[in-house]
Amino acid sequence: MTDTSGNRSNPLAQSQGMTRRQALGVVVLVVAAVFVWMVFAQWPDWLKAVLISKKAFLSAILNGLTLAGLYFLVASGFTLVFGLMRNVNLAHGSLYLLGAYIGYEFAEWTGYWLIGVAAGFLVLAVVGLVMQITVFRRLEGQDLRQTLVTIGISVVAADLMLAYWGGTTYQILTPRWLSGAIKLPVVTAVRSNGTEVFLVYPFYRLIVLFSAIVIGIGLWLLINRTRIGSMIRAGVDDRDMLAASGVNVHFVFAIVFALGAGLAGLAGVVGGSALSVAPGEDIRYLLASLVVVIVGGMGSIVGAAIGALIIGLAEQIGLVYFPTYGVVLTFVIMVITLAIRPQGIMGRSL
Amino acid sequence: MTDLTLTPAASRTASQGWIEKVGIGHILLAFFLLIYPVMASDFFLTQIGGYSLVLGMIALSLMLLAGYGGMVSLAQITVAGAAGYVVAIFGENNSGVYGFGWPWWIYGPLAIMIASLMSALIGWIAVRTEGIYTIMITLAVATACFYFAQQNYALFNGFPGYNGLRAPDVFGLYWRDPVPFYYLCLANAVVAYIAVLYGARSTFGLTLQAIRDNPRRMRAIGFNVTAHKVFAWWLAGLIAGAAGILLVWFNGRISPGTIAVGPSINILVIAIIGGLRHPIGPFIGAVIVTLMQTFAIDIIGAERFNTLIGLVFLLIVFVSPDGILGLWERLKPQAGRDDWRSFKKAANKAEKKGRNA
After folding, report:
1. Taking Cα atoms as reference points, which of B286, B241, B232, B278 lies closest to residue B52?
2. pLDDT digit string, tens, across residues A96-153
3. Residue A337 touches chain B, beta carbons under 8 Å
4. Nearest CB to B307 within list A143, A156, A335
């Protein structure tokens, strides 16, 4: 690898070889090349000895990616709400679970899965709107009290959901066009008679990943390319100045809270179809959103995506290679991030 | 409720008699707590009295951090649980895993020490950030510990946890019998209460409160803010750890359910309902929550207890951010209020003087 442009502008760099940025680029390229090789090549025996089998490894990666997609859907709402309102919504997991239950009810009632997804988003958006207007607007600027209120809401909500839906596990049925498995063009092994074994993966999970990417791009466009997005960004930077320049901040807050809650509800339906719906899931996804935004940085959509990717992959790889210590891996990532960069990877300085 | 000694009354002069120094309220309260076993049945003694004192101690460790340090932690039950697991592993259990059978005077201090170190570690992680982040990070830590204890069979014996933990027999008394257990909890709670009350007026306590109010200024003056905060976490860990030992002796078992998110939120609820202004608050909160827990069956049915407690919690947060103590402050007899006001005026004057100087 030779570098030209960097050296001409900075003669000092000549003696050091590469600049830091270029070194990072090389590392990324090498890692990517190794990864591509691992995906497409036949694995030698020593690699199998380290990583069990190619199928296990690739499944873990794919599961990690889809889980990351789900985590991103949940955490993006959480991080948006925090970034704008400085409101740590610890009832976010409850919103996820409520969305899943509502999606289940609507899907069962109408028979259309997509209606369930839409209902999960819309109903939860309304719930979020009501929460913002009736509760959080009254406690504006009081971080601690707002957070305590969300804790109280989550306790009550978990109990009422348990009362209504009971302790049983629900499974939201995906429509036929989404279920089933597809063969990926990746050979995991070659049988002795020469036939190639392809990697088979549930189609629905790929759809989860795909929809998370689409929604992520949509959110990014909304924040960075629209008028309401520029209001949100301005609000994140300086709320008072935004209000002073004639924008109805309460309107912006309500929109963002509804969007965040709606995304949690949507994630509930999508996640409830991929996995299952049961009491206790609220805590699981609350933890996931917390860790994702702590690692990725509060208030940043890109940070939520990066955090979700790291945590999703770590969780699934941990599940395959050291089952009982998987949680510790997540935890260690959080601690390392806090130690090196307390504000998170994409976070602004505190 | 008894009258509370507020700082002005206690810090006036040393020439006052010891009764005024300790406060008539404290004396009445101590008298009541000492003769409580005479009037209470075994159920009220252990399930209400002992249990409230244990929960109150855990909530007191939270009050120490939140009230004086401005760090609201949701990991206090995790610290108590760590002490509980140490008791289960090094003491005796009948789950057939570990249970080294060490005597109580070795595993007790060991448990408190490990719990306090763990608390300091959590604190060291949490103080990297400030304000509202502390709640998030401690909640993440508490949840991660819960899932870890549930998944890990090698050390924590997974989902079932440890059963058959027995309080020791010392001086011919079985310490889980109602009366000894009550007095044991009372003694621990009183030591912790007095330590927090007087610790708050020590140099360290005042420094901690100053850091809570303005960390930047304290850093500029030359105080090591991080070290003070971590030390506060370590102290809170001592209290929570001692309470954790009492908790496993009370329950006779420890499982991941003990350190789940529900119980950890419960501790916060207790502290907030009682009030974070004064160390008596957590104990008031604990008594209220325990009584509600016991008698909610008659009001709302055992299953919907969480809804009830959640609604009470929301009500308190909305109506009185300082909990029951705050309500008491507002409704207090006029004379006491004058006292409080004159103190505030004096404090304001002193502050102005300080600024002018």
Report:
1. B286
2. 999 999 999 999 898 888 899 999 999 999 999 999 888 888 887 788 888 889 999 9
3. no
4. A156
Cβ within 8 Å, pair A147-B318: no
Kindly state whether residues B138 and B29 are assigned to the same domain. no
Tell me what pLDDT residue B4 has: 46
Q: Do A338 and B125 touch (CB under 8 A)?
A: yes
Give the pLDDT of residue B93.
82
Q: Assess if residue B355 is contained within a domain.
A: no
Q: Does B135 touch chain A (CB under 8 A)?
A: yes
Of A274, A323, A329, the residue nearest A52 (C-alpha): A323
Looking at CATH, the fold of the domain delimited by A53-340 is given as ABC transporter involved in vitamin B12 uptake, BtuC (1.10.3470)
Count of residues for chain B? Answer: 357
pLDDT of residue B340: 47
Q: Is the distance from CB of B268 to CB of B311 less than 8 angstroms?
A: no
Radius of gyration of chain B (CA): 21
Q: Does residue B354 sit within a domain?
A: no
Nearest to A80 by CA among A218, A219, A230, A212: A219
- pLDDT tens track for B292-335: 888 877 776 667 888 888 888 898 888 877 888 888 777 765 44
Predicted pLDDT of residue A98: 94
Q: Are B31 and B69 members of one domain?
A: no
Residues 156-215 of A with CB under 8 A from B: 156, 158-160, 162-163
Residue B348 vs residue B110, higher pLDDT: B110
The answer to whether residues B27 and B46 belong to one domain is no
- Which of B148, B310, B313 has its CB closest to that of A328? B148
ipTM over 0.85: no
User: B82 and B26 share a domain?
Assistant: no
Instruction: Give yes or no for a contact between B75 and B141, defined as CB atoms under 8 angstroms apart.
Output: yes
Task: Find where tokens 């708050």 sit.
Answer: B200
- The predicted pLDDT at position A349 comes to 59
Contacts of A341 in chain B (CB under 8 A): none
Q: Is A75 on the interface with B (CB under 8 A)?
A: no
The one-letter amino acid code at A139 reads L
The domain total for chain B is 2
Model confidence pLDDT, tens digit, residues B69-79: 888 899 999 99
